[in-house]
């Protein structure tokens, strides 16, 4: 973290952000900083993967840390069907005159303090993604979407994923 502060001091970066940190890890990282604040934590978050809602999202709200939601469409909007068997997302999309992608992204954007990181490898992707901003879901649509089945990764799975990432990082350094 001190190396990150040196990067800020030398104007090589403007802010310090994290990736996949738990509230406890964010606090530990922040305690290592002398003059900067952590401004973001990049984590997996979507309408169908709400692992962060119990602890990290409220923590980030209180600490004014932005949540950068990667995979806000999970592994693809087509995979929402396994969670949304009644096509609630499709019904809401038709009702508000938006695409299911735009509704799912807007649902994330309506969560304070969430910002989404979206795939944008074509002009069509960019245009569709832009259609998710500049409006808010009405309460009835919000309530309906929140009834869609979702998953929360258990602490053991989150731990295993974190350890696997660290092992891969170490292997990468030794190659």
Description:
Helix 4 (88-96) packs across helix 5 (100-109). Helix 3 (56-63) links the parallel strand 2 (38-44) and strand 3. The chain has one domain (2-174): Alpha-Beta Barrel (TIM Barrel). It is built from eight helices and four strands; from the N terminus they run H-E-H-E-H-E-H-H-E-H-H-H. It has helices at residues 2-9, 23-31, 56-63, 88-96, 100-109, 123-130, 139-145, 155-174; strands at 16-19, 38-44, 66-70, 114-117. Strands 1-2-3-4 form a four-stranded parallel β-sheet. With 175 residues, it is an alpha/beta fold.
- Biggest β-sheet description: 4 strands, parallel
What is the terminal separation in angstroms?
Answer: 25 Å
Q: What is the structural class?
A: alpha/beta
Runs with pLDDT <50, length 5+?
A: none
Assign a percent range to the helix content.
40-55%
Query: What is the number of independent domains?
Result: 1
- Rg: 18 Å
> Which strand order does the major sheet show?
1-2-3-4
The CATH level-2 architecture is identified as: Alpha-Beta Barrel
> Approximately how much beta-strand content do the residues carry?
5-15%
Task: Using the coordinates shown, work out and report the CATH topology.
Answer: TIM Barrel
The SSE order reads HEHEHEHHEHHH
Overall 3D form:
globular
